[in-house]
Amino acid sequence: MKVRVLVSLKPGVLDPQGRAVHHALEGLGFDSVSDVRIGRTIELEVADGTSDAALEEMCEKLLANTVIENYRIEKLG
Amino acid sequence: MAFRAAVVTFPGSNCDRDMAVALERASGEAPLRVWHGDAALPDRLDFIALPGGFSYGDYLRSGAMAANSPIMREVVRAADRGVPVLGVCNGFQVLTEAGMLPGALMRNESQNFICRTVDLRVENTASLFTAGYKAGGTIRIPVAHHDGNYFADTETLERIEGEGRVAFRYVANANGSQRDIAGVLNAAGNVLGMMPHPERAVDPAHGGTDGLRLFENAVKALAHA
Is-contact B219 B202, C-beta < 8 A? Predict the structure, then answer.
């Protein structure tokens, strides 16, 4: 089973990288952008039947730092 | 009584030798060297140092992989027993990732790697690391990091401020850190994480010896313990 984990900065945590990319988009003339936040995608190949609890534990213990990041788990089947 | 310190080396650590030199200069004893994959720490340790560098190539997040290496389980256990642990730069990142210190170290606000000597204000002189400094005094210590921007939520910041656990603050904010925080202590006061490198200020040829005093403070505190 393929699983995708999307890790993003929590709301309220400054994202200087996102801000720099936002400025660069404005520089290219894309003035419709009001905010940019940069995250990370992690794709896992796991055994069928891997429990949601195990996936969550992977995120809590290693894949995300929950002090600053949120995560979302998507099962791609 | 001999001062028995250990310096942990992770793959990608690059300040481990400097850390060992600083500890030897302060104590007269060469520290033991420990590898990240070791299952156990040497016994009867007086002090553990996690050095700077780029452990595991900063994969995933700075310090995240090292925080889960075999030796860190033992470092956590030793710290719980009260053994002093100092984490510098990448070592500070490892301590936060391991949950031994609150907060996280994010990319510098400027996006740039910064490498220069900065002024730090000594905020806490009650810890074994900082007891020899003058309260509110400034010391000059080099920084060299890309991910030194200290973040914690407001509740955590209020708590550590209230408990006097901010050890050092940047006189001029170097990296975007909240409340100019450069170094933080754990609740028990035996774990210190700091982004600046005291081991790079232990010889007049380094441009100053303000960092040496931190190691001397620890040696002195432990000799009286």
Answer: no
Q: How many domains does chain A have?
A: 1
Q: Which of A17, A20, A62 sits opposite B64 (nearest CB)?
A: A62
Helix, strand, coil: what percent of chain A each, to 5? 30, 25, 40
Which residues 6+ apart lie within 8 Å of B1 measured at CB?
A: B223
Quick: pLDDT tens for A42-63. Answer: 999 999 999 999 999 999 999 9
> Which CATH code fits B5-224?
3.40.50.880
Phi–psi pair at B94, nearest 5 degrees: -65, -40
Encoded tokens for B171: 């006189």
- Here the ipTM equals 0.87
Q: In which domain, by residue range, is A26 found?
A: 2-75
Q: Nearest chain B Cα to A60, which residue?
A: B97
* Domain definitions of chain B by residue range: 5-224
Which positions in chain A touch B146 (Cβ < 8 Å)?
A: none
The counts of H helices and E strands in chain B are 5, 11
- Express each pLDDT in B99-153 by its tens digit: 999 999 999 999 999 999 999 999 999 999 999 999 999 999 999 999 999 999 9
Is B115 a residue of the active site?
A: no
Strands (E), B39-161: 47-50, 85-88, 104-106, 114-122, 138-145, 149-151
